[in-house]
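Minutes, project check-in

Agenda point 3 was the complex the collaborators sent over. CS summarized: three entities, 612 residues total, and the question is how they sit relative to each other. Sequences were read into the notes so everyone works from the same version.
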Amino acid sequence: MDTKPSSTTLLALSSFLLLFFLANSQPSHDQHHNYPRKPRPQRRAIPKPCKELVFYFHDIIYNGKNSRNATAAIVGAPAWGNRTILAGQNHFGDVVVFDDPITLDNNLHAPAVGRAQGMYVYDKKEVFTAWLGFSFVFNSTEHVGTLTFAGADPLMNKTRDVSVVGGTGDFFMARGIATLMTDAFEGEVYFRLRVDIKLYECWW
Amino acid sequence: MDTKPSSTTLLALSSFLLLFFLANSQPSHDQHHNYPRKPRPQRRAIPKPCKELVFYFHDIIYNGKNSRNATAAIVGAPAWGNRTILAGQNHFGDVVVFDDPITLDNNLHAPAVGRAQGMYVYDKKEVFTAWLGFSFVFNSTEHVGTLTFAGADPLMNKTRDVSVVGGTGDFFMARGIATLMTDAFEGEVYFRLRVDIKLYECWW
Amino acid sequence: MDTKPSSTTLLALSSFLLLFFLANSQPSHDQHHNYPRKPRPQRRAIPKPCKELVFYFHDIIYNGKNSRNATAAIVGAPAWGNRTILAGQNHFGDVVVFDDPITLDNNLHAPAVGRAQGMYVYDKKEVFTAWLGFSFVFNSTEHVGTLTFAGADPLMNKTRDVSVVGGTGDFFMARGIATLMTDAFEGEVYFRLRVDIKLYECWW
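CS then shared the predicted structure for the full assembly.
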């Protein structure tokens, strides 16, 4: 038997390469040029993240007595509210500004690896729920850079997903999903949040 | 004539494959590694969306008398304003928090398929214009998940585009453009907005 | 010597094409389907932007006396603050709404090519730092469309990066990084910011 490939074999291989390339290029093409996609079956496979991170952050709301420790303050309130007690009707209308320490575990006094900075508004009368806009500002041996988050936080749910809309530094151009969980709270002053960050777009 | 391809033909085909691949890989390469693009001609073809959705949402601003129906409240105002009447100077400086029902048609009393939650600030003295940050929180038989929006809303324009900056659940990692239209309003209390959502990045 | 390529050469070429294609397709594949990436070496090459823009914008905060010129107003403040003087403790808790002219050079009186519209919150007690959400609304011969920004602004730093989270019109679907620099300020009333915008996702 001849060990050399025939010309026909080569043609087949080349054709295979062509088909292979076309088949593989399709998803990329769709992604960028947006030809309509066929609906996928109901049970979708969640893609694997390109980076996963878990942090805790700690929100201590100013209540008129804790100015030394407070990391958050009510700065806007509806006509029926004030700025030292969260408003009635599930805090509807309260605007809170925060600068909370980020820790690697659930200990408030662990060394902070960064700060969670931004705002939330309680946006519903009937139930506790908020809209969040904030950034994680990292400045540790591990990470330097920021991640910016936005989304709805129906905070009575065990877990709730917000969007990671951008990043800088180590998180250059990142996008993803952050799952928030209320890990602990004390009255209406201390809230500890756990956040599981899954990035699905990583540039490096 | 010989039906078998000559070696020369094969070389040509292989070269074609190489060129074809290089030509096709270029857009994808550009997209990710960002070599500068050549300017395109003025009239650009708008890409086809990977998903299109139309909704209405209904904003009833608290005016001191309608607390039962109100879905929005003024929570911040400049020094010259207050929180039960929208400020003068085109409401410049008013911060409004909302939790509005989303419907499939323009009827306020149609079953809500979700809630539009977030905030807007009137940001200009000379003319009505606002900056928006909000999410659609869907919880219907049709959709479960969120879409998050941000952008300027020059609300005296017939249509204005804001960015869809992220999504979760059924709208996992989505991006796109939302076109807002004031569909109806009554005085300075009720506003009905139509929103045409066009997603250009769909993960499923 | 025979000038025609041997079959072996052709096979090698085809194999090369296959390998070449696989190697090149990997980044695109990673980007979209998110297989985990290998960590890159510490010194990363910053990708080349697909578009670069430089602008100045001018923030004149209302101080109770300058209502004719002011482009920004304090609209939220913590319990210890008010809305005509920025609060103590590094303005922690102040919410500022703005509509600032954008110019091509550092001259406040140069023709505006658009408006910077949105809000910032001073979010830290110990040092000046803010969280920003705003859009550039362009309407000039050069550009029509918007860019939307979000992120932390540790404004005592010489430069600070925020995320470009979306765009419309000429900046359809754009993403990138904006570097803010305080170019000049007068007291606590006038701030001139220089912003270097680098887009890394351009759709046209």
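Noted in discussion: The CA atoms of residues 5 and 11 of chain A lie 10 Å apart.
Follow-up: revisit at the next meeting once the mutant set is ready.
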